[in-house]
Write a structure and sequence with these properties.
Helix content is 46%, strand content 23%. With 597 residues, the protein is an alpha+beta fold.
Length: 597
């Protein structure tokens, strides 16, 4: 470049700097400086060849490394001027009309990079349930409060079990009764029971023999004597009392009357002696008692004499007559002997006792023992059921966790509810909400990404609440079914957090999950800025012969940082334009040919 051209550029820059911002002014100064340093390369500028092509024989030292300082200077300029297009327009304004500038290019890069999928997610507890009793009832004891940590199978609440305790005692008694019955059947009959049955059999047999043999003469004679005695007693009552008996009763009355008269005189005489002080009061009382006894004897003798004179009463005669008839009937039965019915009844009694003795000697049947065993087992089942119901009044923690929220207090009536329910009905019928200490991250990946995620895959986790700190985890669960939200199909992935500091993360925190999906071996990468969209698809402009830009259609892959993978369309030794070609504007500037068709 000649000195006149340099002066022309300086003049253009100075005239534009008065209307530029400080950043644009700094960019213009940088461009001028860059131009002055390139005077020695004027020939290359005129041809537009910066020798950016990468030598296939010596890739470690490409010729464009001589100008590597441009890589550090040009990006800030590009950013300050609004990207490659902005840079081109600025250069067009700054350079004089008719000038030509080499477009900004960069060599395609081959490298091996690790690939990953990044998605936003939320921290959630690994498990979360509402605890409630198995049966409805009243809370008797509540052993935890909000924020408490509990261990698996720890009792957190106890329900009222007073009714069940009463049923427990009842079933325990029934079991003891059934066991005693079984033991009795298994032990068999006692010797005493058998002996008693045999004695009853002997008695029945003797009675039968007696009936079959008839009555003995002695029994008949005894019955005749009892009948004669009854008749004699009746005749005596019908005849009445003899005169001798009346005379005897009269004499007895006269005797006791004389005794009374004598004792009455003694009583009067001793009263006089007592009044004169000759005797004591005790002797006087004794004499009065003797007089009273004599008076009672007189009354008794008078009554006996009256009964003797009145004779036998009709009731006594009727009773004696009935006795005579009874004895006569008994004598008639004895003389007639036993009836057939009585003999048959006696035989039946004997047979019954024979069977009873045989049953006792044979012991308990197997069927009876089996039935008793079944009754014992039924009683045991009933007892076990009530014991389980009492045990179920204890509400246990199903896993190690934290009491997140308490819904009820002691005395409240609660009923069973869905363990995972979180609605108003679940909270109103539950005791508390328990969440696990273990945390997990839940993210939603698109259906195009889910094929790259596998169970057990490592995941790097970043939390907004802890900038600069990294957590690690593994893919624990991939939802078996995708879901569609606002016409976007995604699959839920759950990641377990295995970092030692995972307890820092609280449920509900926002995190970023980075899934390591593998690495690309010797892949071709181009800058993101070089990729353009055309009607025929995505592609890049490469620098061809004569510094002409050529559009190459490519198939893109993953994006790693500021670079995009090219799966097909490039060989790996091209120079790509960092901005698409622009039409030449009036006043001069960058002039590039259109892409060849």
């Amino acid at each position: 470049m000649t000195n006149e051209e340099n002066m022309l550029i300086d003049k253009s820059v100075n005239s534009a700097s008065s209307q530029q911002s400080p950043a644009e002014h700094r960019l213009s100064s940088t461009l001028v400086t860059t131009t002055s340093h390139q005077q020695s390369r004027s020939e290359n500028l005129e041809t537009g060849d910066l020798d950016h092509s990468q030598s296939s024989q010596s890739p470690a030292k490409p010729s464009w490394l001589k100008w590597k300082w441009l890589i550090f200077i040009l990006p800030p300029i590009v950013i300050a001027l609004g990207g490659p297009v902005g840079l081109g327009s600025k250069l067009m304004e700054l350079l004089p009309s008719g000038s030509a500038v080499k477009p900004l290019t960069q060599a395609v890069e081959r490298k091996t990079v690790a690939t990953s999928i990044t998605a936003n997610g939320t921290v959630k507890a690994h498990r979360s349930i509402n605890l409630s009793p198995k049966t409805a009832g009243i809370i008797k004891t509540l052993l935890v409060k909000e924020g408490d940590r509990v261990k698996q199978d720890e009792v957190v609440a106890v329900m009222d079990d007073s009714n069940l305790r009463g049923q427990l005692v009842q079933y325990q008694g029934q079991l003891l009764q059934q066991r005693a019955n079984l033991q009795q059947l298994q032990a068999g009959n006692r010797p005493q029971d058998i002996a008693k049955a045999e004695a009853q059999l002997a008695e029945a047999e003797a009675n039968l023999q007696q009936l079959q043999a008839g009555n003995r003469p002695q029994d008949i004679a005894k019955a005749e004597a009892q009948l004669a005695e009854a008749k004699a007693n009746l005749q005596q009552l019908q005849a009445g009392n003899r005169p001798q008996e009346i005379a005897q009763a009269t004499a007895k009355l006269q005797q006791v009357q004389a005794t009374l008269k004598q004792r009455e005189g003694d009583w009067q005489r001793y009263q006089q002696l007592y009044k004169s002080g000759a005797i004591s009061g005790q002797i006087l009382e004794q004499k009065r008692a003797d007089r009273d006894v004599a008076q009672n004897q007189v009354v008794e003798a008078q009554q006996v004499l009256a009964l003797q004179k009145a004779g036998t009463r009709p009731e006594q005669i009727a009773q004696a007559q009935a006795k005579v008839a009874q004895q006569a009937e008994a004598l008639s039965l004895i003389k007639a002997g036993a009836r057939k019915e009585e003999i048959a009844q006696a035989k039946a009694k004997v047979e019954q006792q024979v069977q009873a003795v045989a049953v006792l000697k044979a012991g308990t049947r197997k069927e009876e023992i089996d039935q008793a065993i079944a009754q014992v087992q039924a009683a045991q089942g009933s007892l076990k059921t009530i014991q389980n119901q009492i045990e179920e009044t204890k509400v246990l923690a199903p896993f190690n966790g934290i009491v997140l929220e308490k819904y009820a207090d002691v005395g409240a009536f609660v009923s069973p509810s869905m363990a995972g329910g979180g609605g108003a009905s679940a909270s109103s019928s539950s005791i508390l909400m328990l969440t696990s200490v273990r945390q997990q991250v839940v993210v939603n990946l698109s259906e195009s990404q889910i094929a790259k995620v596998k169970l057990g895959q490592s995941v790097a986790i970043k939390a907004d609440a802890f900038p600069g700190e990294k957590f690690t985890g593994k893919v624990e669960q991939i939802a078996p079914q995708a879901k569609v939200t606002q016409n976007v199909t995604s699959v839920e992935v759950r990641v377990s957090i295995d970092s030692a500091t995972a307890t820092k993360l609280a449920a509900g925190m926002n995190v970023e999950a980075d899934f390591a999906v593998g690495q690309l071996e010797n892949a071709i990468f181009v800058p993101n800025a070089a990729v353009v969209k055309q009607a025929e698809g995505a592609g890049v402009y490469v620098l061809g012969e004569g510094n002409k830009s050529v559009f190459r259609q490519i198939q893109t892959g993953v994006t790693v940082g500021k670079q995009t993978e090219v799966k097909s369309g490039l060989q790996g030794n091209e120079q790509v334009l960092l901005s698409p070609p622009a039409e030449q504007k009036s006043g001069g500037g960058i002039s590039l040919p259109r892409p060849s068709q």
